[in-house]
Amino acid sequence: MPLYKIVTVNSSTKVYIWKVEETEGELYEGIALTPHCQTRMSAMKSEMHRRAFLSIRHLMAKAGYVDSDLFYDQAGKPHLKDGHRISITHSHNFTGIIVSETHEVGIDVEMQREKILRIAYKFTPIEEYRTIANTDALIRKLTIVWGAKESLYKIYAEAGLSFLHHINVKDFRLDDTSTTAEILYQGDSSFYDIAFFEFEGFTCVYALQHSMAIKGKA
Predict the structure, then answer these.
(1) Are residues 163 and 85 in the same domain?
(2) 140, 180: one domain
(3) CATH code for position 147
(4) Of 49, 81, 102, which residue is a domain's last?
(5) pLDDT in tens, the chain (218 residues)
């Protein structure tokens, strides 16, 4: 089974990445789905989506969980029954989870694609990147920014939160591995640590919320 990478973020938080190479039948081995999740998976028309779904259950097993330990709230945010925090992502043939005993967490894996150049204005002030002349470098940086904001959105899970207007990712260099971010929304301010790494044309970004949010500072 191709567990691709485990990243130990701190003593209570780990990232798990899977490269989906197995058949659907192979991924079913050793996995027991709840009736609800079996129904969800059966409704997926894409075999790749079903394989990704099953691979995430293997990642959960690596973290010590089974499918029945997972549930979703009304906003669609995943939770673990033991109170630990989890976030889930998939992109093409890679899937990932982050699990933490102590922090609210979010994760996103994205393929690095030129498409991001066309949509960048929707999620970040594109004029901030005019000094980057190399197209590949610009794609890589924008993918990190998008992944950071997607990770933060998964943590915050509030309808109306805007990537462009409410989430600010502090600038960073491509040879960095981390930065910070702030969400300013409806009078509340919250702060986050962001980390990222690249592999095989993909970018993984994950976020941890600071323990204290500042109210009424927006």
Answers:
(1) no
(2) yes
(3) 3.90.470.20
(4) 102
(5) 689 999 999 999 999 999 999 999 999 999 999 999 999 999 999 999 999 999 999 999 999 999 999 999 988 899 999 999 999 999 999 999 999 999 999 999 999 999 999 999 999 998 888 788 899 999 999 999 999 999 999 999 888 999 999 999 999 999 999 999 999 999 899 999 999 999 999 999 999 998 644 433 33
pTM of the model: 0.93
Q: 3-state secondary structure string, the chain?
A: CCEEEEEEEECCEEEEEEECCCCHHHHHCCCCCCHHHHHHHHCCCCHHHHHHHHHHHHHHHHCCCCHHHEEECCCCCEEECCCCEEEEEEECCEEEEEEECCCCEEEEEEECCCHHHHHHHHCCCHHHHCCCCCHHHHHHHHHHHHHHHHHHHHHHCCCCCCHHHHEEECCCCCCCCEEEEEEEECCEEEEEEEEEEEECCEEEEEEEECCCCEECCC
